[in-house]
Hints:
With 123 residues, this protein is an alpha+beta fold.
Amino acid sequence: MAFNKDEMHAPTWMDQSFFEKVLKHSENDPAVTVGALKIVPGSNAGDHYASIIFRAAVSYQSRGKSHETSLIVKTVPAEEGMKKEMLKNGMLFETETLMYSTVLPEMYRLMKAAGDETELGPR
Length: 123
């Protein structure tokens, strides 16, 4: 399948403000500030099926300390084309979110109750 140029460049909304909002929530710190930010494609062009993946290297301040983290951001195609059209009425992202937020945690809880400490997650 051909790739679109939106696979190679992060959308304009994926900026310092976006990552500050994400980190404020995940760190439970309303005073988080993002310093350096580098966003690159998270996979090779055309390697993904229904989404576009970016890797962000983020340097930030939280509670008076400097931190660095690498985050993966998955988004839908922005450029018009077959991929965007395929996703328009699909429930792929909703299904994936349900798996990670509800199904996998419940599976992990049941496994742990049975004495199995295996970590579940994507590879």
